[in-house]
Amino acid sequence: MLDILYLDDYLAIVDKPAGWLVHRTPLDKGETRFVLQALRDQLGRPVWPLHRLDKGTSGVLAFALDAMSARTLGLGFESGEGLHKTYRAIVRGWPEDAGLIDHALKRMPDDMRSQREEVQAAQTQYRTLRRGEFPLAQADFATTRWAEVELQPLTGRRHQLRRHMKHIAHPIIGDATHGKGPLNRVVAEHIGFNRLWLHALRLELRHPVDGHLLRIQAQLRPEWELWHALAPAAP
Description:
- By secondary structure, the protein is an alpha+beta fold.
- The chain has helices at 35-43, 67-79, 160-167, 181-191, 222-230; strands at residues 3-7, 11-16, 48-49, 58-64, 84-92, 98-102, 105-106, 119-120, 123-134, 144-153, 198-206, 213-217.
- It has one domain (3-230): Pseudouridine synthase (2-Layer Sandwich), CATH 3.30.2350.
């Protein structure tokens, strides 16, 4: 059963588990866990997904409960107006204390709107919360540095956070597509848990009917406490 963070007649917001797809896709035919289907069955009514989270990402995920709310909120999610998203991630290396990643992204092949290559503006703010170091040798380095960061996407491009962190040479740990496979495997063995270390922590949006501001938060999963216990921060 999904953990419902907010529910009324127009809107349902859940805490998506890592490893679940939002909905069925031919790109992952073997998966059997879908948030849309599970929420529909749990509530006993149709639901409309307002945005997506990658399969490996956990955290706040919003659905509309009627077509009009879906249209109203869908425009906001598409434009980014009236929305504020905050993520938590663990990345390789030690990024700067804070920064803005302003790097345009090409539409991914399965998201193309035409045969012509399309490049979209994309911006992400980040803030480094803490840094640490594993006693794990990687390449020419005797240890492996990591950092826990707060990410705030200012645009909503496909895999934006994962692609942006790769762009600044601090890929998210556990990212099989945009990260480093050998590092992911070594860290998973050291921590004893394998996942994409990306969590949708908080979502702020206006209610589709009365316009009041909602601030919804999904607490970090228990494996983050395990990370903090096994990977202490640098002094």
